[in-house]
Design brief:
453 residues, alpha/beta, Rossmann fold, N-(1-d-carboxylethyl)-l-norvaline Dehydrogenase, domain 2, binds nicotinamide-adenine-dinucleotide, binds uridine-5'-diphosphate-glucose
C-alpha cells in the first residue's frame, strides 16, 4: 500500500520504518526540519534499538522517504497514519489536541480520492467524534474514513513492538475502513496476531485503560515498597513471590522511583480527569491515589539517600548514574531520574550526571545540571553513588564496583531502581541501599542495617 505517517517522533518514526519493513511504500511527514533532514539521511534523531539499521535500510532502498510537505503525503498515500503529539495542556489534566486538529484541518481539504485516516496518537474518550466533525466539515470528496488505532509500543522496544504487537485495536465504523486496516497489517495478522475490531469509543477506552493499568501495577508495588521499608521486609522478594502466580505476573512489577516518560504520567492524568467528567467517581479516585503514590517516590528516594549517607546532603558530591526515564531510551520526558537530580540539588547536594545515551539531551534541556561525558567523570570524588536509571552498564557490569571504588571517596551505593546485583558491590566494600529492602553491608550482612551504622 501507499502509506503516510504524519508526525515522525518516538512513535511515528519507528512506525514508518515498520510499515516499510512490512512492504509498504511510505512517506513520513515531519514538521521539525532538523528531524526531517536527519531521518531523510538515515540518521536516527533519538536512541532506539534496531531503529537505525532499519531506517538506513529503507531510506537506502527508496521505500521510505521523509518530507516536511503535507501536500506530498496527501497526493501520494491511500492511508494516512496520524502520530503527532498529544501533550497535556497547562492544566495538567486535558490533552492539547491542536497538533491533531491542525493536521486534519490542513490534510482533509487536500484529499482528492477516497482514503483512510488512521489515528495512532493517544487521545481521550470522545475525541474521535470531535475529529470526525472536522472531516465532515472540510472534505471535498466522499469516502474519507476515520479509524482509531491506538499504539501500545514501548520505547526501547519500538521496532519489535511495531512488527510483533500483542494485539492490534481498531475503532472504526465502515467495512471499507476495516478492509484497509486488514490490508495494511496483513503480514502481522497472517502470523496470528489478533485484530480487535470495535467502535472508536471502545478503542479510546482500551488505550487509556491499558496505560492506567500499567500505572496501577507500578504504584501498587511501590506502595508495598514503602510498607516493606517500615518493617525491614524485602519488596523485591515480595514482587518475585507474588508474581509467580500468573494472575499477577512479574511484568510491570519492578519497584523504583515511579513511572515516568512521555506517556504514562500524562495518560493517567487525562484518563482520571475524564472519568471524573463522565461521572465514574470511583475509578477516578482509584487512579488519583495511584498518581499520589507515584508523586511521593522521588521524595522517598531522597530520604533513602540521606539515610544511606548518614546525614544532610548539603555540599555532598553525588555520582548520579542515569538521566533517561528508563533504560533503553534517550528520552527525558517526565524523567523521574531528572526529578531526583533536581531534588538532590535543592537539598544542597552536588550531583554529576552520567547517562550512556542521554547526556547530550540533558545538556540541551537542562544546562544548569552538571554532566560528565564518561562514567569516570561522575564517579571521581563522589561520596555517594546513585543509580537513577537501570541501564545494564550500571546494574550488570561486574567491573563497575571496583572501578567506582578506585575513583569515589565514599562506599555508599543507592540504587533507586532496585535493579543492581549487590554481590559484586558488597565484595568491593560497598554498602548497598535500595527502596523497600534492608540495606546490605559488606562486613556485617545479614545483620540488620541499623546495627552497621
Ligand atoms: N512514545 C511512545 O512510545 C508512544 C507509544 C504509544 C502512543 N504514543 C502517543 O503517540 C503520540 C506521539 O507521541 P511521541 O512520543 O511520538 O511524540 P513526539 O513528540 O516524539 O513526536 C511527535 C512528532 O510530531 C511532529 N509534528 C507535530 N505537528 C506536526 C505536523 N503538523 N506535521 C508533521 N509533524 C508534526 C513533531 O515535530 C514531533 O516530531 C502521542 O499521542 C503519544 O501519547 C506514544
Ligand atoms: O515494572 C516497572 C515497569 C516500568 N516502570 C517505569 O514506568 C515507566 C514507563 O515504562 P514503560 O511502560 O516501559 O515505558 P513506555 O515506553 O513509556 O511505554 C508505555 O507507554 C506507551 C505510550 O502510551 C505505551 O504504548 C506502552 O504500552 C507503555 O508501556 C518508566 O519510567 C519505567 O521506569 C517501573 O517503574 N516499573
Amino acid at each position: 500500500m501507499r502509506v503516510s505517517v504524519i508526525g515522525c517522533g518516538h512513535l511515528g518514526a519507528p512506525h514508518a520504518v515498520a510499515m516499510a519493513e512490512l512492504g509498504h511504500e511510505v512517506i513520513g511527514v515531519e514538521l521539525d526540519a532538523d528531524k526531517c533532514r536527519a531521518l531523510s539521511t538515515g540518521a536516527a534523531p533519538f536512541y532506539e534499538a534496531e531503529f537505525p539499521e532499519l531506517l538506513a535500510k529503507h531510506v537506502g532502498s527508496g521505500r521510505l522517504r521523509f518530507t516536511t510537505d503535507l501536500a506530498r503525503a496527501a497526493e501520494f498515500a491511500e492511508l494516512h497514519f496520524l502520530a503527532v503529539g498529544t501533550p497535556l495542556r497547562e492544566d495538567g489534566r486535558t490533552y492539547d489536541t491542536r497538533y491533531l486538529t491542525g493536521v486534519l484541518e490542513s490534510l482533509v481539504p487536500m484529499l482528492r480520492e477516497p482514503c483512510t485516516i488512521v489515528g495512532k496518537s493517544t487521545i481521550t474518550i470522545g475525541t474521535v467524534a470531535a475529529l470526525q466533525q472536522i472531516i465532515d466539515a472540510r472534505a471535498e470528496t466522499d469516502g474519507i474514513d476515520l479509524v482509531w488505532n491506538p499504539e501500545f509500543l514501548r520505547e526501547g522496544h519500538a521496532i519489535q513492538d511495531s512488527l510483533s504487537p500483542d494485539r492490534i485495536v481498531v475503532g472504526l465504523s465502515s467495512t471499507a475502513a476495516q478492509k484497509a486496516m486488514e490490508e495494511v497489517y496483513a503480514p502481522i495478522l497472517a502470523r496470528g496476531v489478533e485484530m480487535i475490531v470495535t467502535t472508536p469509543a471502545t478503542a479510546e477506552m482500551i488505550k487509556s485503560a491499558a496505560n492506567s493499568f500499567l500505572c496501577v501495577k507500578i504504584s501498587y508495588i511501590n506502595a508495598l515498597a514503602e510498607a516493606c521499608g517500615l518493617i525491614d521486609a524485602d519488596v523485591n522478594a515480595v514482587a518475585h513471590a507474588i508474581g509467580i502466580d500468573e494472575r499477577i505476573g512479574h511484568a510491570g512489577m519492578r519497584p523504583g522511583i515511579g513511572y515516568g516518560g512521555g506517556c504514562l504520567p500524562k495518560d493517567i492524568a487525562a484518563f482520571s480527569h475524564r472519568l471524573g467528567q463522565l461521572g465514574a467517581g470511583r475509578a477516578q479516585a482509584l487512579l488519583e491515589s495511584v498518581q499520589d503514590i507515584n508523586s511521593a517516590r522521588v521524595a522517598g528516594a531522597v530520604d533513602l539517600i540521606e539515610q544511606a549517607y548518614g546525614g544532610l546532603l548539603a555540599g555532598v558530591p553525588v555520582a548520579f548514574l542515569g538521566a533517561s526515564f528508563k533504560a533503553g531510551t534517550s528520552d527525558l520526558r517526565y524523567s523521574p531520574a531528572l526529578a531526583l537530580a533536581d531534588r538532590l540539588t535543592a537539598h544542597g547536594a552536588r550531583p554529576v550526571i552520567y547517562d550512556p545515551q542521554a547526556v547530550a539531551g540533558v545538556r540541551q534541556l537542562r544546562p544548569d545540571l552538571i554532566c560528565a561525558d564518561v562514567v569516570e567523570g561522575a564517579l571521581t570524588g563522589a561520596e555517594v553513588v546513585v543509580i537513577a536509571t537501570e541501564w545494564p552498564q550500571f546494574t550488570r557490569d561486574a567491573k563497575l564496583p571496583a572501578k567506582a571504588g578506585a575513583l569515589a571517596r565514599g562506599r555508599v551505593l543507592v540504587d533507586v531502581r532496585n535493579a543492581v546485583e549487590a554481590d559484586p558491590w558488597l565484595a568491593n566494600g560497598w554498602h548497598v541501599w535500595q527502596l523497600g529492602r534492608p540495606a546490605q553491608h559488606p562486613e556485617c550482612d545479614p545483620v540488620p542495617a541499623s546495627a552497621c551504622r
